[in-house]
TrEMBL record:
ATP binds at residues 6-11. Keywords: ATP-binding, Cytoplasm, Glycolysis, Kinase, Nucleotide-binding, Transferase. The gene is glk. It comes from Nitrosococcus oceani C-27. This is Glucokinase. GO terms for biological process: glycolytic process. The lineage of its organism: Bacteria, Pseudomonadati, Pseudomonadota, Gammaproteobacteria, Chromatiales.
Length: 335
């Protein structure tokens, strides 16, 4: 069963053709592209299919995961000027079936295909079989999804959300000052504004302007030359930069608090999974305690929070795996 899958993010897009056997895919072709290099997904997909023309024949279906809102077969990317239409893609590229899903929906479907080595455990908790699960992940944006067990299929159904855009709820004087700072610049301060790659940059500039701490010349130079979030994270983790370290610690605390908010909203006794591009890169900071301290700090319900398993997903292609897995399932349903 040969299918086409894509994981479309604001920074990068992964495309893959896989041939599924019995619940196991054989990857026939896979490419990574910088999303910003293409004016539309059509242009990118055309490039990929041209480059892989020898393996692209006989496709039975396609599933494209998009970092954005998906409604009735149309997806609008949140951090890209792209609009995808399933019907248009089927006709333009002669694909038998195209399904568009949210990128965190894809991550949810990909979890089933992971192994224990693909996770780092932050809290073992008391996992319950067939109980709800949840996913949260910071990267270019902030994504969240819910997973609900379906007895008739023997699989989890993934429910997408836009929970990353809920109101930022500060904890403590520093975060209250952060909200005040951002409210002068933004009409709506959501968690994504402070819990993402761009959010880390925002936290750094907030602390630089309000803490009185001096910016190191080396980091100032790095910020002017490339990926600012990566420069801040690297300076904190590898060089011990105090200002960058405080910004990263603040992000970790906010991350843990919002993961806890998500857990309270759906009680994922089957596990809460931390996904996205940032978590694996700052794993040592997540394991240092600030994340779980904020996660558990829920007043009268702190004891309940201790029962929820919390794991970091280490496999960077989990979204691509999930999109491919769903394309396979839907293609089999058409037989």
């Amino acid at each position: 069963m040969k299918v086409l899958a894509a994981d479309i993010g604001g920074t990068k897009t992964l495309l893959q053709i896989a041939d599924w056997g019995e619940n196991t895919p054989q990857v026939l072709a896979e490419q990574r592209y910088l999303s910003g290099d293409y004016s539309s997904f059509d242009d990118l997909l055309r490039t990929f299919l041209t480059e892989t023309s020898s393996t692209g024949n006989g496709l039975r279906g396609a599933c494209f995961a998009v970092a954005g809102v998906v409604t009735q077969g149309v997806a609008t990317a949140t951090n890209l000027p792209w609009r995808l239409d399933a019907t248009h893609l089927e006709a333009t590229f002669e694909l038998p079936q195209v399904v568009l899903i949210n990128d965190f929906t894809a991550i949810g479907y990909g979890i089933e295909g992971l192994t224990p080595d693909d996770f780092a455990i932050l809290q073992s908790g008391k996992p319950e079989a067939a109980a709800p699960q949840a996913v949260i992940g910071a990267g270019t944006g902030l994504g969240q999804a819910l997973l609900v067990w379906q007895e008739q299929t023997g699989h989890y159904q993934v429910l997408p959300t836009e929970g990353g855009h809920v109101d930022f709820a500060p904890q403590g004087k520093l975060q209250i000052a952060l909200l005040t700072y951002l409210s002068r610049q933004l009409d709506h301060v959501s968690y994504e504004r402070v819990l993402s790659g761009g959010g880390l940059v925002t936290l750094y500039h907030f602390l630089k302007e309000t803490s009185g701490m001096a910016e190191s010349p080396a980091l100032k130079k790095a910020l002017s030359e490339g990926d600012q979030a990566a420069a801040i994270s690297r300076s904190a983790l590898e060089h011990g930069d105090p200002l960058a370290g405080q910004a990263l610690d603040l992000l970790v605390q906010i991350y843990g608090a919002q993961a806890g908010n998500l857990a309270l909203a759906c009680l994922p006794r089957g596990g809460l999974f931390v996904a996205g591009g940032i978590a694996p890169k700052i794993l040592e900071r997540l394991q240092a305690g600030g994340f779980m301290e904020a996660f558990l700090s829920k007043g009268r319900l702190s004891e309940l929070m201790q029962q929820i398993p919390v794991k970091v997903i280490l496999e960077s292609k989990v979204g691509l795996l999930g999109a491919s897995r769903l394309a396979m399932r839907l293609a089999y349903e058409q037989l």
